[in-house]
Amino acid sequence: xxxxxxxxxxxxxxxxxxxxxxxxxxxxxxxxxxxxxxxxxxxxxxxxxxxxxxxxxxxxxxxxxxxxxxxxxxxxxxxxxxxxxxxxxxxxxxxxxxxxxxxxxxxxxxxxxxxxxxxxxxxxxxxxxxxxxxxxxxxxxxxxxxxxxxxxxxxxxxxxxxxxxxxxxxxxxxxxxxxxxxxxxxxxxxxxxxxxxxxxxxxxxxxxxxxxxxxxxxxxxxxxxxxxxxxxxxxxxxxxxxxxxxxxxxxxxxxxxxxxxxxxxxxxxxxxxxxxxxxxxxxxxxxxxxxxxx
Length: 294
Prior knowledge:
Blueprint: H1 3-19, E1 28-32, E2 36-40, E3 44-48, H2 54-69, E4 84-86, E5 89-95, E6 100-102, H3 105-116, H4 134-140, H5 146-164, E7 173-175, E8 184-187, E9 190-193, E10 200-202, H6 205-218, H7 223-233, H8 243-264, H9 269-279
Antiparallel strand pairs: 1-2, 2-3, 3-5, 4-5, 6-8, 7-10, 8-9
Helix pairs in contact: 3-7, 4-5, 4-8, 5-8, 6-8, 8-9
C-alpha cells in the first residue's frame, strides 16, 4: 500500500472520528484492502469503505444489528448513528473482537447453515448482484492488455446471460455474500462471522461456492477438507447443475480483484496475469494453484 493511500485514509479517519466525538490519538492501521481498517483505543475498530460504497456500509450496520436481535454470532456495530461520511467515503464503527484467528471451513459451515436458516428481515437488504464492481474493475484496470480486457468483458457478458438462466436450487434466503475463511473468526468466546457488506437475499449456493473453489480452482483445500465442509453444512454445491456458473462468476471476480490490486501494488501483476491465462485455457485444467493478492 502506498504512502499516499495511507495518508488519504488517515485524513478520512481523522474527519469521521472527529464527527463521532472521538480522537485519533493512538489509532493504528489494521489492514488496507477492499476496506481500510483502523484500530482505536477502548476496543474500537473503524472500517472505511471505498468511494461509492455508502449503501453497502449502511446495509452492513443494519444487518449486524438484526443479527444481534437473533443472537447470531457476528461482529457488533457500536451503538451510534452511522455510517459517518467524510472525503466521499463512508465509515462504520465496531466493537473490536478479542484475540482471534481465521476459522477453518469446518468452523464456517455451521455458521452459514445457521444464517441461511434465519427468517428474512423486515427491512429490505436487496437481492444478490454477483457482478457488483466487476465491470468497473475490468474497464478501469491499467495493468491489463487490450486483448485480455476485451476477452474478460466478453466473458462477463456470457456469465450475465448464464446467471439469468441459473438452474433452480436451494430456496433463496439471507446470504453472507463473501463467505470465505477470512470472514470467520475463532475467538476465546466462540466463532463469529464478519464483513456483511455484501449480505443480501439470494441463492445459498453463492456462499457455498466460495469454499468449493478453494478445492476446485485454488487447489488449497483437500478433498477430505471439502468433504468435512459439506458434511458440516449438509449439502455439496459442486453436485448442483448451477455450480459451474457460480464458479465462473467467482473466478472472474477474483481476476478483477487481482487487477485492481495490481494497479496499486505492481508485484501482484504476475498473479493477475496468471489468473487471466488460466481462464483463457492457457494453463491446463483446474486446480490452478492461485495465490493470494493484496
